[in-house]
Predict the 3D structure of the following.
Amino acid sequence: MASLAPNRPQDIQNERGNPHWVRLKNERELDHIPGEDGWPVVGTTFMQLGDPIGFGKRMVAKYGPVFRTRSFGRRQVTLIGPDANEAVLFDRDKIFSSEQGWGPVLNLLFPRGLMLMDFAGHRADRRALSIAFKPEPMRHYCDLLNADIARVVEGWGEGERKFYPAIKALTLETAATSFLGLPFGPEADRLNQAFVDMVQAAVAPIRRPLPFTAMGRGYAGRKLMVEYFTRLLRERRANPGQDMFSQFALARRDGEAEGDLLPEDVVVDHMIFLMMAAHDTITSSFTTLIWQLAKNPEWQEKLRAEARAAAGGEGRALPFDALAQMELTEMAMKEALRIMPPVPSTPRRALKDFTFGGFRIPAGTDVDVSASAVHADPVLWPEPDRFDPLRFTPAAVAARHKYAWIPYGGGAHMCLGLHFAVMQTKVLAHHILTRYSIETAPGYAPAWQAWPIPKPRDGLQVTFRRLG
Ligand code: HEM
C-alpha cells in the first residue's frame, strides 16, 4: 500500500541525496568556454531572469552560440541553434539527463514525473501512460472540454476583461473534469489552490519548507494532493471512469504480468506532474494566441470562419472528428508557440564528455537549449516579431530545419500531451471566436513576465463584443 506521507525521503533530496547524479569535479573545467560569471554570489541570475531573451541575444552577439553563464550558484553552458537543439533533445548517444537537468527546479515538489526520469525507466513509464492519449479516451475528453468551455465562455459575456486570469480559471476547471473526473466544486477548488501553491514553490528562492514561505505552502499543497489522489486512485481502480486519471490507474508497464498495475505512489506522482506540465503551458500559449488574434483581426476572421464550418453551425460543440479540419487554427497556434514558447529553455546535465561547436564540454556540466532564442532568429524566421501562421504550411515546414521550432521539445521527452493541447486550443478557439470578436487598444503591447512560464504582467487587457 502506498505511503500517504507527502514527502518520502527521496523527495527532498537533490544534489547531496542522489549519489548517482553526475557533477563537475571543478567548475574551472569550464574556463575555456567563452562567457561570464556575472556578479559575486548572484552571478548572472538576475540578468537572466529579468530579460532572458535580451540577455541571450547579448551573449550570442558577444560570445557566439556556445556560451557560459553562472546562475543559481553554478556555471552552465547554453547551446544556441537548431543543431544544438537536435544534439541535446534527440540525444543520439544518450549523453544528457533530463532528471538531473530539471531536478534542481522540480524535484522538491514534482518528484518522479516523466521529465524527472531517464532512459529505460522513463521509456517504460512513458509507454504505460500513453494509453491515456489514444483516440478513444481523447474523444471522451473532447466531449468534456466542449461542455465545460461552452458553459464558461457563454457566461463571460461582453465587455473588457483581463484574459489571462479568465483562461487560467477555465483551464483549471477543465483539468478537474477531464483529467480527474471530478465535478467542479469546493473539492476541485481546494485541489486547485494546492496545485497553484506547488507551482509557485517550485521556483521559490527559499528551498526549505519553512512556515510562511512559498515552499512551506508548496509542501502543504503536495501533502494534500498526495493524500487526495491516493484515495481517488483506489476509487478509480474499483470503479473506473473515462477520465485521464482512470486511464493512468489502469496502466501497466510492458512485460509485467497481467494484473500488475503501476504502484499507487507511482501513479499519483505521474498524475501530479502531468497536471503541472499541462496547466500553465496551455494557459500561456492560448493567451499569446488571443493577443495575436486581437492584433490581427483578419486572422481572427479566418479562424472564426474555419470554426463555424468545422462545427457545422452556430452554438454547436466541436466534434472530435472535425478537429482535423481546423488547419488554420493549428497553424495559428504553432505561430503563437513560436512567438512565445511556454517552456523558453530546456535544461539537461551531461553524463559524459561531449564536443559541440568545437568546444569540449565535460561530464557533469549543466547544459541548456533555448526555444525562445531560436524561435526569434531572423535567419530562420524573417521578421520574427510578425504574426504569420503561414510559416507553418506543410511546404514551409518541410523547407526548415526540423529543430528550428521546438515548443514541445523533441526526442524521448517530447511533450506527451501535445495532441491534448492542440485539441483544447481548437475547442477553446471554436467556442470563443464563434461567440465574440476580440479587440485591444491600438498599439497595445503588454509587458510579459518571461519566467518560469510566460504571462502578461497586466493579465492581457482585451474587449469582447458579442457577435450579432
Ligand atoms: C501548449 C502546451 C504545451 C507545451 C508548450 C508543452 C511543452 C512541453 C515541453 C517543452 C516538454 C519537454 C521538456 C523537456 O524535454 O525537458 C513537455 C513535456 C511534457 N508535457 Fe507538455 N506542453 C504542453 C502541454 C501539455 C499537456 C496539455 C500535457 C498533458 C495533458 C503535457 C504533458 C507533458 C508531459 C507528461 C511531459 C513529460 C514528457 C516526458 O518527459 O517524457 N504537456 N511539454
User: Anything to note?
Assistant: The domain at 9-31+80-466 is CATH 1.10.630.10 (Cytochrome p450). The longest strand covers residues 66-71. The chain has one domain: 9-31+80-466. DSSP finds 16 helices and twelve strands in the chain.
